[in-house]
Amino acid sequence: MGGENTLGEIIDLNATRLVVIHDEWVGYNPHSPIATLYELRRGARGGLSDEGRRLSSLAGERVVDVTITAGAAKKFLGAIASADVVEGTYQPRQEWTDDYPHIELALHVGVGEIERRGCIALLFTESQGEFYAPWGACIDRRMWTVPGEEIGRALAALKVPLKRATLDRMMQEFERQAAQR
Length: 181
Fold this sequence. Notes:
Order of helices and strands: HEEEEHEEEEEHH
CATH class: Alpha Beta
Shape: globular
Number of domains: 1
Helix content: 10-25%
Structural class: alpha+beta
CATH architecture: 2-Layer Sandwich
Number of strands: 9
Strand order of the largest sheet: 4-3-2-1-6-7-8-9-5
């Protein structure tokens, strides 16, 4: 191995069978900590589906069904595959206090050929900012830094199918009901 310049050159993300997104945030908010978890399985037609869960210290757990079309899933995985990588230790970018994201994206890649084994690509960040760059990656026991915004932008593009606004409204509704008590 060696000479890889993008995530897609390290691992065939088109063979992804399961996507697990764990998005946790701690900061100045009465709901803190807030965790959102998605476990999305790849269907026969290439889409991703299952459910998303939002947990907070005040509102407890809320659950939504999630479906991502085959086209959106392909675009999502393609954007991640295009991300440049640099082998070495990850260092998060943190510029302010009271805002501590922790996002993990586990891509479970199926076996493509009999000789090849499946693999998990673990992408993670504790960086602040709109797209949480830089990211780290652990693939086949090797550590990488992903300096660009591709992973964060790919996740942001899934905001609607991941029903982030619906989960946010559920939390706001809980707050409204609690205030009326």
